[in-house]
Here is the input.
Amino acid sequence: MTNTTHFGYETVAEEDKVRKVAEVFHSVAAKYDVMNDFMSAGLHRVWKAFTIAQAGIRPGFKVLDIAGGTGDLSKAFAKQAGPTGEVWLTDINESMLRVGRDRLLNKGIVTPTALCDAEKLPFPDNYFDRVSVAFGLRNMTHKDVALSEMRRVLKPGGKLLVLEFSKVWEPLKKPYDVYSFSVLPWLGKKVANDADSYRYLAESIRMHPDQETLKQMMEQVGLERVQYFNLTAGVAALHTGIKM
Here is the structure.
């Protein structure tokens, strides 16, 4: 029997989801940053800056940036970790990874990059001081497996940071839905010539676990001191957890 999962609001075979998510990000890679600015009115930069501050990277730290895409977090982490540190930019999508790698090189940042699946991380146990994933967890088929892998590669005392779209404050739900399902696909068509990918992104946000559920999932894989910060009335949330 074929295992099924969600691709936005659609139910699909698990292997089909991997392919469909790949198609979305191959399609949007070139315009990803421009669209992020349009979609969030630039707020994604504020959310990422908050995540970077919470990460507390120090010189010499080993850092893994999962689903790092165009490299915003890796760029900041590499500067903070310095020449004695080690910052890996990884993504499962080759188009996104290529954009991120080129952006970092253009800024004079040479850091290792790897094409890898968050559910099967090719790194040893207890290796990284910090692991981050920004706007990538909701696209993963087995989120619990991915979270467990993230914990595995963390050193004891290391911190996981998960920045993701989340459940918005109830009074804002109606206007947020109108924006997500009407304005967002229209923007996608105008800016990236791709309405369908942005319709999927809006649906994938709705299918993602809410703040409390994700907190419990992180605790279930063995992370401790799990907490979350609602950003912009819950449009996004940053979850953090420690491996003890």
About this structure: Strands lie at 4-7, 10-13, 62-66, 86-91, 113-115, 128-134, 154-165, 224-231, 236-242. The CA atoms of residues 19 and 165 lie 22 Å apart. Residues 173-192 form the longest helix (20 residues).
